Amino acid sequence: MSKNRLIQYVLLVIILVTVPQFIKNDYALHLLIMVATYGILVLGLEIILGQTGLFSLGHAAFFGMGAYTSALLVMRLGVPIWLGIILAVLASGILGFLLGFPTLRLRGDYLAIATLGFGEIFGLILVNWDSLTHGPMGIPGIVRPQIFGVVFDKHMYLYLVIALFILSLAVAFRISNSFLGRAFRAVRDDEDAAEFLGIHISKYKIIAFVIGGMFAGLAGGFYAHYVTFISPDSFSYEDSETLLAMVFLGGAGTVVGPVVGAVVLVLLPEILSFMVQWRMLVVGVIMVLVMIFRPQGLMGGGMRFLKRKKELATMAEKD
Amino acid sequence: MSKLLRKRHIATLIAVITAFGLFLGGCGSGGGSSTSGSSGSGTLDIGWVAPLTGSSANDGQQMLNGAKLAAKEINDTGGIDGKKIKIVAQDDKADPKEAANIANMFAGNKNLVAVLGNYNSSCGLAGAPVYDQAKLPMIHVGTSPVFSEQNHPYVFRISVTDAFQGSFVTQWMYDEGHKNVAIIYENDDYGRGLKDTVSSEMRKLGGKVAGTWSYMLGQTRDYTAILTDVKNSGADAIFIGGLYTEGALIGKQMQGLGIKLPVYGTDGLYEESLIKLGGSAVNGWKVSGLFLPTENDPKLQKFIKNYQAAYKSTPGTYAALDFDAMNLLAKVIKTVGTSHEKIQAYLVKMPGPFEGVTGNITFNDHHDAVRKTLKKLVVKNGEWQLFQK
Amino acid sequence: MVWQQLINGIMLGSVYALIALGYTMVYGVMKFINFAHGDVYMWGAFFAMFLARFLGGQFLPVLILTMILTGILGVLVERVAYKPLRRAPRLVVTTSALGMSIVLSNLARLLIGSATYPMPKVLAVHDFKLGSSAVINNIQILVLVTAVILMVLLNWFVNRSRYGRAIRAASEDQETAGLMGVNMDNVVSVTFFVGSALGGAAGLLVGMYYDAVYSTMGYAAGLKAFTAAILGGIGSIPGAMFGGLLLGIVENFAGAFLSNYRDGIAFLVMILVLLFRPGGLFNAKIYQKRV
Known about the structure:
- The complex is a heterotrimer of chains A (about 325), B (about 400) and C (about 290).
- By secondary structure, chain A is mainly alpha-helical.
- In chain A, about 75% of the residues lie in helices and about 0% in strands.
- With about 400 residues, chain B is α/β, with parallel strands linked by helices.
- In chain B, strand 6, helix 7 (about 190-205) and strand 7 (about 210-215) form a beta-alpha-beta unit.
- Chain B is globular and about 65 Å long.
- In chain B, about 60% of the residues are buried.
- The N and C termini of chain C lie far apart (about 45 Å).
- The longest helix of chain C is centred in the N-terminal third of the chain and has 29 residues, at about 1-30.
- Residues about 285-290 of chain C have low confidence and may be disordered.
- In chain C, strand 1 and strand 2 (about 135) form a beta hairpin.
- At the A-C interface, helix 5, helix 11 and helix 13 of A face helix 4, helix 9 and helix 11 of C.
């Protein structure tokens, strides 16, 4: 790790540790927790969609899988929460494999609609498999984590989710810069060329779904133990759509861009909440405007860097 | 991606997070500073949350109308101890995640005296732990049995439970001689609870259930597949565990398929729109309800007249429930002041029932509204009438 | 009973097919999923409702005016949200379409209301008995006949007319078509006009069939129609018709026997079809390039 990079991470950690201390309002804390949760979620979708170019409209299912896995294991089998969250990550990864495998042959929009169908089926199973999931009534009273006998309060949740977020961010960067990341982008940019270069396309597509699923599983496991109530309504197609919008709004393929998209799309409706009836209209208008005036996404910029410019141009072409 | 670029990105991320952090910190301290509560300001702030967008937006709007009407009436007569009620309305989009966001927003707003809560049970349950922790009294209209099981100390239910109205209607069907009922229900906590109650009560009485069919809210409103199957099931009556819009369309599609079975339902069907939309197709439908517009009760007549004047329509179940909830809150605040703890304590142990337009209300140990009986209503000549044998 | 379910399925399917045509036409030329199309269809139903209130029981004038108004709306949507993005990656256009969909449905809620409105009677209903138990009424027959006529007209338009040729040329290769003197702006506008006009027709027909119009109706129907378009092979007009019918029929039989999983089974069938025919049932020639 270079010195400069270390300084950057240290700075990020310092800010993320100190800033929450000055926030006393529960609502502000809650929103930051939601921003970080969505941050982890979109980092996963970024790997599937931004890096590997797999158009997925079922990401909410991975989120739900994580939330339900941990909640059910903890509530029904008395598994410790930390283990529950780890198992949630694994379960969502397995779900990613199960989704990735049959859809290998599908490309572009065909993949999108297959993942959409997959998400809908997952939602219906949550609603209808009463004996396991408690159906549409959802699971109430999910236990909160404790440390040394102290039940988590909002500040502790925020620190926990920030830690998870930084971990996810580091992993995402690591992947993006490794051979794995280059293989993902090769698959995204030109499948045929990637195959020609000896990259096993199917393998990397499945790996992308597995890793993306694991990120979402982590977010889901955390979310279940934070909000303490989950029901099928929380993991719907509309949520998959929102996640998709976050990735593009921030800038697909840039790792950090989608996180910025998550910050904007989580906070914007709340900031606009004074205009109750009109806010969703405004959110829609802003989405259209951002796309028109910044088609590369909010963070797709960095235009001063020539290399990036070139990459963008090739991305536009390939897309 | 170049290392240079990544550094830049992290730097931007730091900037974005800091900016939003400071923004939130700012609004946080702003909200926190006025801890003096409503006693300092000139208004009594009541939070209100239900869906105002999405497929349940219409029901949410009705609730808001009811609450606003009650607040206006109170304010027009001088408010409570000289203070006017102000409704802080928020839209939960029928999404539990958004409901949790808003619950936290309300919990952070120290000016709020109480909250008129969510329409969807799942939204109410997502917010309930927050209201408990903030000790902010919340009155909602959800129907899920989970509320009773969870015993949230600060959460109260003013609507009728599925168990109560489900068994009421089942007895009614049985008394009318229907012993083999087909159940069509909305596949969510509301419809599911009714389906379970009606099935078990019918069997207890010695009747049969010809079958159960479900539909999802927000999907294509085509019920012909279900209805064709119902037609061939040998049922002698249909019970609908759902809401008026879907109910009206089920009625019309029954008419199209030539199905002439008697139909029963609960307060979810009781609404002017059922008749407006359903027309002749819903004639003779029997529904358990909380009130009847033509009833000779001065309090009710005044409510209906004022509601019609303000919103050009006749109030349904949900408008009336939030009208009552707002009046109940006003009465409590008048008696015990604006302390959250005192309001909660009053609601837990009400000295006498609150006389609302939906009947006399007290809360039981589970904080569910207790009502003595329901009204038997029927659609006749294009309007709701009291059922007579 | 089986016959009645088949009739129900064909009815639902022909509605899906009409909406699916809008997705498929836009996709053929522009290569992106116009997520706002479901909401354009919803506006079509509202246009039809208002027109029917003014014009009363005149089916043809209501139909034609609805199609024109909805077509204009479609062109407007394209001009505002997609035209500035002609050279952008198509997923960016998709995001813009998602935003436009939010805008259109919220506008309807704010301007008209969130209630469900009955459709004024355009025609009186007459039932016809088919065999011992199946029933069909004149509105259903009208919906079916109109859908079929519109699809035949569309097929003629795309394959025989001058604009149709331009559309086909553009869908094969935009740049070459441009070099050959095809005005892309006009082609895109015509495509959006025709696709949206068909959505408007679907709005009227659905409004008449279910006798209900509401601001969120575009969402579920749009999702299903989009599925139908992919199922048939997006970009293919016969594919959209066939995909719609197949989806409608599957959904109806699934709805009767396993009502809890009605939509799940519809999607499962779709995934299975795609597994064996990854390009949809009518593997459209247009769709050979990747994302």
